[in-house]
Structure formats: C-alpha cells, structure tokens
Write a structure and sequence with these properties.
Chain lengths: 253, 279
Amino acid sequence: MPHSAPLLVCRSLQAPRRGASLEECEDAVAAVAERGRFAVADGASESAHAGLWARLLVEDFTGAAADAWTDALPPLQRRWAEKADPRPGDTPLPWYLEDRLRQGAFATFLGLVVDAAPESNGTGAGPWRWRALAIGDSCLFQVRARKLLRRFPVEHSAEFTSSPWLVGSRTPPQGLNRTEGDGQPGDRLWLMTDALALWFLRQVETGLEPWLELELMLDFSAERFAEWVEGRRKARELRDDDVTLLAVILESA
Amino acid sequence: MPYSAEISRANPTCFLFLIDQSKSMAGLLPGQDKNKADAVADSINRLLYTLVLRCVWGQQVLDRFHVGVIGYGRTVVAALGGALAGRELAPISEVARNPLRVEQRVQRVDDGRGGQVDQQVRFPVWFEPRADGKTPMTAALDLAAQVLVNFLVDNPNCYPPLVLNLTDGEASDGDPEPAAARLRQLSSTDGHILLFNAHLSSKPAAPLEFPENEAPLADEAARRLFRMSSKLPPPMLGPARQAGLNVGPETRGFVFNADLASVVRFLDIGTRVDFKNTR
C-alpha cells in the first residue's frame, strides 16, 4: 500500500512463498512516512508464531518515539507471549506446542529512520540524514543517480548464510549492526527481506542495475508484483520464500 | 544448484537413522559411565524432539520431514515404538503425537548470570536402547535403500534425504561398501541422498570429526566407514564452519570415536537444512 508525506514517499510490496496466502506470509513491513520510520522483518518459519513476532517488531519500531530500540524489546516480548498463547494458565497443551512456545519466535529485522539533516532549511526537501539498524540479513540499499551507493548489512551475495543473526521473542538479539548515511533529493532507499536482497546483489555482481527493474514495480499492483516474483522464481533467479520490498523515495522539491 | 530445494509440506524431505543394536553396544563409551546403546538412544530421541519442534507452526505440526529409525542387531527392523511400531518412515506430525512416553529429566542450563542451574525438561522417548545379536549393517543399508526408493518416487524433487548410520564396529554380513554405494546413488532432482556415518569405538583412540581423508583413522573398520560416507555438500559447509568445525570440499560426513556430545553435534550438522527457508 502507498504511504506518503510531503517529499518522503514510500511504497511497499509483498508476495508470499508458493502455495501460501499473504495472511500466511511471515515477512512484515511497516512505514510511517510522516515520521520517517520504516521497517521490514522476516519471521523464521521454524519458530512459533514468527509472523506475529515480525509484525510486532515492525509496528513497534515505526510507532516508537525514541531510538532506544533494544529497551523496547522486553515489553514487546511480553506482548508476543500474550498474543501467541492467549489460553488461561491451566489449560494443557500437547508437549510440542508448549515447548515450542517456550522457545519463542525468531526474526531478522531492519529498521530505518530518516530525518531532516541539520543543514536542511526546513522545507522538507532535504538533505536528510538516515540511521539504520539490522539484525540478520534483511537489507537496505541506497541508490543515488543510478549508482548503488550503500549496501547494509550484507554487502555481497556470498555472505548470505542459512543461519543469520535473529532477534527472538524470548531471548536478546544475537547481534546488531548499525549504520548511518545522508540522503539527497532523488535518492532511493530500498529495504527488502533476504530472498529479494540475494537476487538484488547477484544482479549487481553480474554488472546489472536491478534497481531499474524495481523502480518499474513501484506502480505495480500486489497481484502484478506476485506475478513478477513468480517469473523470477521460474527463471531460478529468486528463491521460493516470502518476499518484501519497501521503497523509500526522497523526492526533490 | 543441488541441495537447495525448499523443504515444505508439499515437498518434504526425510531423515533415516540406522542404529547398530548389536551386543557390543552394551559396552561403555570410552571414559564414560554410560553404555553406547543408551547414549545413542538418548541422542536419537533428542534429535527427534528437535525435528518435531522445528515443524511446529502455530497450533499445527507441518509434515516437512518424514523420519524413520531402522535398528540392526538380532534382526533388521523398523525401531520406533508404540503406535509407530513397524513403520519404516512416518510423517513428523505422527511422530509428534506418538512418543512411547514423555519423561521429565534434569538438564543443566545457563542461568543468565554466568552460572548454571538444574532445570526440569521434557524428554519424549520414541526409541528404546537395545544391544543384542550381530551387526547386519549391509542388510540395514539395503533396507534403507528400499525405503528411500519409495520415498523418492513420491517426492522426486525433494531436498535429498539424509541417512545417518551409527555403529560401533564392523558389519557381520559381508562388505557393506557396495550397499553404501548403491544407497548413495539414489537421488532426487536436487542431488544424491546423503549417507553419514558415526563410529563409536570402544578403544580409547582420539576422536576425529568430519575428516578429509582416511589416513589418520586407526583401524580398517573406521576407514571403511569413512569411504562409505558422502562428502558434505557445499551448502552444508557454511553451517558446519559456523558450528566451529574445520571443513573443506573433501570433508566427509563421518565422525570417529565420537562422545555423546559430538554425536549430537554430528546429527545436528547433518540435519541442518536451511533454517529460515524450511516451510
């Protein structure tokens, strides 16, 4: 769905893995363009209620006032526990459901905050400063004037592993990367979960400019995007996984 | 790329465990007060527990995995107990619902403040230890091949099934190498099946995990098991390195004289398919 504020516009697109509905998608995306806060998360399927955890993470980050994100985690973990297991205390569950809930849910996460830079003149037309934090392999790519300026936190396709850092609903984050940068009018900040990020970096590594293709998708309907994703899967360019794309466009005045 | 198929309800993979139940498994593990049969049974039950939990999604258990245990000793037989008795493979949801019993055990865990505390944990049991008879490993490998041929007909595009063979000695029914080679020939469109071997020697020789050649191995039985083992496919090398193992392209899925902890780690590496993409 499109979100917009003057001069900071965003668009998100999602496609579920094959055979699943969007409701079963365990990726989550949230954006509050007015406040310059954006997030994507990828729930690890081998965990309990991972989609719920991913949604809580992105909604909390984009709704939060402060940057002290890790401080917000314990209350968020309690909310996950309440929602994941709403039954009264003494209702028995099969052993495997109970043990699974105890282990909790896991997700990768990428959060982005875009603010007016100190030197901006208050028109909202930039320049901007941005800060991002990442746990795991949900990625941010910054494109300026048809050039890939920044890649975060994964820089090369070979760095994707089957066990990225994760943030758990019962445990502290395994590891956190932070970075920051500046934004100029016309820049694009592309946020995406791992399957699309892997496609993106592989394209870059073969000398292609995948952001040109993504740019064309900004006008796509969700159905049309799902068709594009399926086409890439058939061409074996894209892994069969939930796919999330969030474009943040720093508009010129 | 091989060994990259997605694992899902629609395209499940399978894990088959071949467990030596010969008389010598009643012997103690080197330096431990636990016998080999008990240690192996604990490892298999722990692993089945982990596999079940990996398939819980919301309130359901998704049949991403089919699992089976074949014991070889006095007979060669499907070795899961209770409602699963006689089944060579069962979908993981049935395994979840049908343990023989759920025990409470005490486990030492980190207390989060640098110390350790005892914690009660659930320990479902599907597979009972046994140590009786000879070591008909060749027959067990042949039965595994039969089971997997059928699984592969039903699931031609699956992530290649993994067979883990745990033994303390030499086959008593002829050379198992040709049977192992036949088994490794089986394949899905995603690659050949994987045969990993763990040798639990009673001799106090230094343990060796995931070697690249057979030269350092002490006896011929161990060298044979090394030769019977599949090479680690490239997508498994990353997780193995993350687990602190020194592995390369020639590394085989083989551990020698493994103690209990390394058997569990061996099983964990062997079944560590893509954590995030298993649906």
